[in-house]
Design goal:
Shape: globular
Oligomer: single chain
Helix content: over 70%
Structural class: mainly alpha
Strand content: under 5%
Number of helices: 22
């Protein structure tokens, strides 16, 4: 068996391990180590490689931004910012048809702007919005689907942990990628609002009504979200204006969110330690996934599968857009069985060299940014696509009176909107790069 064939066989083995519930990081690490041994036939290079990869992967300074953004999200949740965002959105939208669900999506967008994690956004906003959605008479399918879809805005609207990982893998500027993601992220939020508006008109029984909030209460509710706006503009604005590097901005944002949480009484010694613990666990998981993917991708390099694949694609004479569409379709399939972070760290080193060798009429930097936004958007679809849509399971676990099949049915219109948005962003790259 040739080394290329060994590389090809590694993918079904990896997928089998994932279906056997082996953690994705361990599955990639184990497959990479064993595959490298089969290709090289000796252990010494593997041991040397493990030492080098472990250091070069985890010592990357750019990765320090990840625990800081995660900690900022922890502090934001403890500081009641999620509740304030939902209250403000509900004050202006709640009395409309489907308004409470729209408010939940709007609050997810606001929380995502200071969180950077899809799972954290979905879990946090579900705690806040699910009780109100139930009290307002919303069907379980619409309520859970709206929150699951809204949770994906945590990685679409900058800052985004997944986008940081892509920037490192593709060696791109993090600040420019954040700027490029801003408009597509807003389009995603707007498309979800449109989906809810259409959904409640097609199925009027799926949404109840909330009382109209007088203006005397709306203004204080809007003012209450000033900490979120201040942290967002300090972090994202500080990066774009050149005041801070992304890592410095993340540290300042985490510190600011911590001060707000402390001032509001949501942060004491015990909760502070809990924030640090949860951040450490999430960071360790992400770093382990990155390490496992690095080992697996190193094995693929030894097998020469990416190089041979790139040569084969070039030899077929496919049009660049055809290749891009095939890759995006593969991402949608992968998203059904893998989480977004694992999918990106595994596939970007394989697909990125293939597409960068083709002419899309863009400069190398603009193409890398556009491709990154497309990958981010498709990865987001995987978060709400069965059978392994992690956001679906998080929301389902927090709303045990709603059957998972109801959530699956409710999420279909949101996935449809996502696919339509991918088509638009693919056809018009300017949407992603005009701010860069």
């Amino acid at each position: 068996m040739s080394s290329v064939e060994i590389g090809l066989w590694s993918f079904p083995v990896l997928i089998l391990l994932i279906f056997m519930r082996v953690p994705i990081a361990a599955a990639m690490l184990g497959t990479g180590v064993v595959g490298t041994y089969i290709v090289l036939g000796k252990w010494a290079p593997i041991l040397s490689q493990m030492k080098a990869i472990s250091w070069t992967t985890n010592a990357n300074y750019s990765l320090s931004i990840i625990p800081l953004f995660l900690l900022m999200g922890q502090f934001a949740a403890r500081g009641g910012m999620s509740q304030a965002l939902f209250n403000a959105a509900a004050a202006f939208l709640g009395h409309r048809k489907g308004g409470v669900a729209m408010a939940a999506v709007g609050a997810c967008a606001g929380f995502g702007s200071i969180c950077g994690s899809s799972l954290a956004t979905a879990a946090t906003m579900a705690q806040v919005a699910l009780p109100e959605l139930k009290r307002s008479g919303y069907s379980g399918g619409l309520a859970s689907a709206a929150l699951a879809a809204g949770g994906t805005l945590g990685i679409l609207i900058p800052p985004s942990v997944v986008l940081v990982i892509y920037a490192i893998l593709a060696e791109q500027n993090i600040a420019k990628l954040f700027l490029a993601a801003f408009v597509p992220g807003l389009l995603a939020a707007l498309s979800y609002l449109v989906v809810i508006a259409i959904y409640v008109r097609v199925k009027p029984e799926s949404a109840g009504h909330a009382a109209r909030i007088p203006w005397a209460e709306r203004v204080p509710a809007l003012i209450a979200v000033w900490p979120v706006a201040a942290i967002f503009f300090l972090v994202v604005g500080g990066i774009y204006l050149g005041w801070f590097t992304p890592t410095q901005a993340a540290a300042i944002g985490a510190g600011g969110a911590g001060l707000v949480a402390w001032a509001k009484g949501g942060l004491d010694r015990r909760s502070l330690l809990a924030c640090f613990k949860d951040t450490a666990v999430s960071t360790g998981m992400i770093f382990f996934i990155v390490l496992g993917a690095s080992v697996f991708n190193s094995f693929l390099a030894f097998s020469r599968l990416p190089q041979v694949g790139a040569e084969w694609v070039t030899a077929q004479g496919f049009a660049p857009m055809t290749v891009l569409i095939i890759i995006l379709l593969l991402y949608i399939v992968f998203g059904c069985i893998m989480d977004s972070l694992s999918m990106i760290v595994l596939t970007v080193p394989i697909f990125f060299p293939i597409v960068t060798a083709m002419d899309f009429g863009l400069s190398p930097e603009h193409f890398a940014i556009w491709f990154g936004i497309l990958v981010l958007m498709v990865a987001e679809i995987g978060m709400i696509t069965p059978p392994v849509g992690l956001n679906l399971f998080i929301i389902s676990g927090m709303s045990r009176d709603v059957e998972i099949r109801e959530t699956y049915r409710g999420i279909v219109p949101f996935v449809t909107a996502d696919l339509l948005r991918i088509v638009i962003l693919t056809a018009f790259p300017i949407i992603s790069i005009f701010l860069v």
